[in-house]
Amino acid sequence: MDDQDRTEYLARVKRYREKNGFVLYAYVLMSNHVHLLIETPKEPLSKIMQLINFTYTQYFNKKYGKVGHLFQGRYKALLCDRDEYLLALVRYIHLNPVRVKMANRPEEYKWSSHHDYVKESNGLVSTERVLRLFSERISQARRLFAVFVDEEIGTGRNEEFYKAYEQQIVGDDKFVEKVEKKIERLEEPLRKPSLKEIYKAVKEVTGVSEEEITSRSRQKEVVFARGAMIAAWRASGHQLGDWQSVLKRDLSVLSKYSKVKEEDRGKRAVDRVIKLLNARLQA
């Protein structure tokens, strides 16, 4: 990705920000990934990212004579509470180039929104909300923001945000509980979860690991977790036949396992697995 490519990417962010009405609080364009901190009052995040990534992929493939997908896998998204966590996320994003030794200080890196905060906004980023948390006087707010970011230089990566990529919710306990209650009303995942994501959810519900599920064990709890895993796999829109190569059993045996959901305990377990998956796929 060269400077022209980065300019083209930001042009698409600006176009869809104006068209879809989202608020951009911060960004950084790295060598192989992008961080965007946005608020979506109108359109869902999935639609916005699809528009940006699809049109940019068209541009990139045409320029370099390539075909196929440019962005491998789904974007990672997290839902965050405002103010305290908003500030921390902006700082975290602006320090990415410093953290990976692409710059000694955040203001040295051209392709981030740090300049919009400490100097003057180019209109792409909405800085007012964040800066007002420091001072109503814009000049003083910019100075205090710069100090706030500089204080974190050299402290290493923030494990809270790496953990947040798994749970996808950043905020205090009350905020997380509020979001999870809303998500629990959904009956089906918003996209097909991966095998790894289902393994993790099943382990949280049953306490049985991936290794035990795929083993030849016939222990009662392992068989139960295996059934919950297959039932959740099917409930998520996947084909039962995809599991033959994993468990090396024929379809009749797999179908028998999945009937665990017909019992009260099994139904409760599968429902809990689906709710956990929803919570992680919602952001």
Q: Quick summary of this structure?
A:
With 283 residues, the chain is mainly α. The protein contains 15 helices and four strands.
Give a written overview of the molecule.
The protein has 283 residues and is mainly alpha-helical. The protein has 2 domains: 179 residues, 2-Layer Sandwich (Alpha-Beta Plaits), CATH 3.30.70; 97 residues, DnaA protein, C-terminal DNA-binding domain (Chromosomal Replication Initiator Protein Dnaa, Chain: A, Orthogonal Bundle). It is 55% helix and 6% strand. The strands form 2 sheets. It has a two-stranded antiparallel sheet. Strands 3-4 form a two-stranded parallel sheet. A hairpin with a 4-residue loop joins strand 1 and strand 2. Helix 1 runs antiparallel to helix 2, helix 10 packs across helix 12 and helix 12 crosses helix 14. It is elongated. It starts with a helix and ends with a helix. About 4% of the residues have low confidence.
Structural domain tally: 2
The number of E-state strands comes to 4
Q: What Rg, in angstroms, do the CA atoms define?
A: 22 Å
Order of helices and strands: HEEHEHHHHHHEHHHHHHH
**What about the largest sheet?**
2 strands, antiparallel
Strand-residue fraction? 5-15%
Spatial gap, N to C terminus:
27 Å
- Average pLDDT figure: 80
Total number of helices: 15
**Quick one: CATH class of the largest domain?**
Alpha Beta
CATH topology of the largest domain: Alpha-Beta Plaits
Question: What is the CATH-assigned architecture of the largest domain?
Answer: 2-Layer Sandwich
CATH superfamily of the largest domain: Transposase IS200-like
- Which runs of at least 5 residues are low in confidence (pLDDT < 50)? 162-167, 185-190
Name the overall outline: elongated
Strand order of the largest sheet: 1-2
- Please give the share of residues in helix: 55-70%
